[in-house]
Amino acid sequence: MSRPRVIIVGGGFGGLNTAKKLAAAGDALEIVLLDRHNYHLFQPLLYQVAMAGLSPGEIASPVRSLLSSYKNVQCLMADVQTVQLNENKMITDIGEFSYNYLVLACGAHHSYFGHEEWEPFAPGLKTLEQATEVRRRVLLAFERAESERDSAVIKSLLTFVVVGGGPTGVELAGALGEISRYALSRDFRHIDPRRTRILLIEAGPRILPSFDERLSQRATRDLEKLGVTVWTSTSVTHIDRKGVKLGNEWVEAATILWAAGVKPSPLNAKLGVPLERSGRVPVQQDLSLKGHPQVFVIGDQAYFEQNGKSLPGLAPVAMQQGQSVANNILRGLKSKPREAFKYIDKGQMATIGRRLAIVQAGKLRLTGRLAWYAWLLVHIYYLVGFHNRIFVLIQWAWSYFTFRRGAQLIVNKEWRSFPDS
Amino acid sequence: MSRPRVIIVGGGFGGLNTAKKLAAAGDALEIVLLDRHNYHLFQPLLYQVAMAGLSPGEIASPVRSLLSSYKNVQCLMADVQTVQLNENKMITDIGEFSYNYLVLACGAHHSYFGHEEWEPFAPGLKTLEQATEVRRRVLLAFERAESERDSAVIKSLLTFVVVGGGPTGVELAGALGEISRYALSRDFRHIDPRRTRILLIEAGPRILPSFDERLSQRATRDLEKLGVTVWTSTSVTHIDRKGVKLGNEWVEAATILWAAGVKPSPLNAKLGVPLERSGRVPVQQDLSLKGHPQVFVIGDQAYFEQNGKSLPGLAPVAMQQGQSVANNILRGLKSKPREAFKYIDKGQMATIGRRLAIVQAGKLRLTGRLAWYAWLLVHIYYLVGFHNRIFVLIQWAWSYFTFRRGAQLIVNKEWRSFPDS
């Protein structure tokens, strides 16, 4: 007798939690997890890789290893091309798969609001490849400035523009401030990294708009202490290799980082279902697709309204949705009715730099050092795998006491692959 | 009054030791260290990055940080194009440099013995980029085998050929044996990684020819215990994407690693001096170029005979040569005569796998567990930087007790750079 097969696409927070919860319930299901990469990435710390604080191996673990104790889970590296909803079938680069249940948890990409031509000049931060590329650009800018004589070029090399005042943009800008003020200040002879100009650009009236106004003001002040200049109500109108146009003002900058918009997976457009305005897939109360109760969509890929507001693209949302889906699949096996998903908001936090963060949870508001310790605890606690936790803790302790960063390598992509790959 | 300027090219073991010793002697000299990369790489552990045991950041540190306490040292990222020996001048991609003393320590590349077309199919192991590429190929081979149905393809994916029976080849083959027997054995559902076929190919009559015959026999037996098949007196006659031809025998293999020959830096050919048969630069007793006493060549780039034998391309040789050159430059400042270089051989060691190594030092011969602990101590001791030492120790302790590896990430090179870079 063959067991019902659940296919989960995506090994992020949503997919991994679905797989774990289903697998822990026993052998009644055959579980297949597909991902384009072989690892689960702890995205909340990705900016640390981009800012030379952590190595890729410290925030990512092979999905295969994370799930190796569950014998009823298979992990495969695959790229999903299309889903044939009416046939319960999926086409991937490693072959066709049929399923009894499908859980789509493919996440999101960066959106340049119709200006995709900006991407090469202003990389986003969603993948390890992008993070090492950002690290390469940031460190190379300092290296090049050190050997440059032309003061206008030096100025451009030491100008960093971060577009987008959400948590990622704030973390990037704050970390740039820290790096230039502390980590690199002793290492250069010709330039003074403390003279680095860092601009954080936000189109709306204030940064971190999902937080209380008071907290976002405090974050702005903290950023300014680290040497970051915050420009709100400012729109990017052009980006090229020389710099960025902010409204009508031209800023020469060798390094521009994009932390502004997200757009959902390109798979969405191929599902043949109506999409929400932002491109996400609207789901029912049980997170299933309308008319396809055997198909669930969760995390950044899904559009789910609660109390009249759409849920944000955060790890806790994806994790809770993964558990809810697993729960409903398991209930189905026992012929129990499904339960509606309800997101329990445990609060949000953003880090700005060394001992500076903001936390908003229920009625609790924390800033400064206390908020930073809270941020630290939560991130270490949720970091996947005992091994990574220890490493990140030590890496941070070392950086904390020495003001240095552990992963300042400029690794090129010079090595050639197989001619055709 | 301007100080005499010493330019050191290359931040490897030779260059770094020259810079440190010169810098520590005070402010009488202006010291400039040029390197194509921004980091010093601890090459003896590079195979660990290739074999997913360590992360790049754990075996490499920015040269700039390693030398930051020496205020009379400047580090610049630069690619040397030519040296004009008669004008004491050098052309690089970041401009011209004149010097009073020049120390060339550019190291070596891989040699394919006139078959450069094999390189894409059989990468060598000299740079971090190559190491992450090798890691990607090895891990991808297992991933692809897991989702493959065709048994001939699976067999090819699970066949690994390592060409070259020197220390690097032995380390790679041994680590492949370990990975497949221990680290990955629990993580796959369709394939059994323990069935992996690993061939170590050596053209000469025995592996590790620089060691005693008894030790190389022991190493062969240890490798066999890890599932490695050792073929000696076997020449590679062809390599392509499908496999490798060994004499007249064709072996289908998806992954081929090259640890056979080295050739010196391409800069040598541009110096306009006669080169030794292998392409290295013959140097005088004080490691200077004949007719150019202000120019020194050290490490893998130099050809130096002692007791009728050329010195091998090992870290201790480069380190001792760097110190000798620094010493002679400092003696020159005090108008003292130069001293001839003499290599003091403290012995050699090679590791095979978990608790398996061989050590040969003077009359001392160690094998097995004791040799492995000795290898561990020496490598941790010489690993540059307190920070890296701690990390590597913990990483190893973790791998040792859990049989897992900490850096099993397949990181692609998909992200695009600036269009023209």
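The CA atoms of residues 18 and 326 of chain A lie 5 Å apart.
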